[in-house]
Each structure stands twice: as C-alpha cells, then as structure tokens.
Amino acid sequence: MSANTLARDKLLSLEKQFRFQWEPAQESFVLLYPEGLIKLPGSSGEIMKLIDGSNSVNMIIAHLGEQFPGIDLKNDVLDFLEHAYEKNWIRTD
What we know:
Blueprint: E1 11-14, E2 19-23, E3 28-33, E4 36-40, H1 44-48, E5 55-56, H2 57-67, H3 74-86, E6 90-92
Antiparallel strand pairs: 1-5, 1-6, 2-3, 3-4
Helix pairs in contact: 2-3
C-alpha cells in the first residue's frame, strides 16, 4: 500500500481549486481548475457526484452498489478514488 492510501472511513471533499460540473461541450462531467479542465469519462462522474463532504469511501461504494445492483464496483471505485487522491483532486476531511 502506498503512503497516500485513503482511509475508507474519512469523509471526502473536492480540493478547493476544483469545481465539478457537467460540461455540455465535452459531453461529460469535468473538474474545472484555474489552468484548465479534467474530463471525467464514464463512471468517474458518477463517483465524483458523491464527493461532497458528507460521504466516505465506504459510503460511496455502498451507495453505488445500491444504484447499480448486481455489479461489483468496489475495486473500480477504490482505484478511481485512490487516483483522484494521489492527483490531489480530492481530500479527506
């Protein structure tokens, strides 16, 4: 495990320099920041919708499991959240 591994019980928020929104021109969700944007393809936008300061990693996995029953999303969600954390898009509160 890397030193940057997320604690699964900590609440997650966007880092202050980012804004999450749907971008019609990109036809996807994006993270906007002063120098540009990061396009969030596929399910990453669904995950980012839940990063609002009131959900932990475990809560996000549980919510997506309810929203998409019968699909094992745990590892994909963990991989994305670890990536977002390592890139400093999100933080723990």
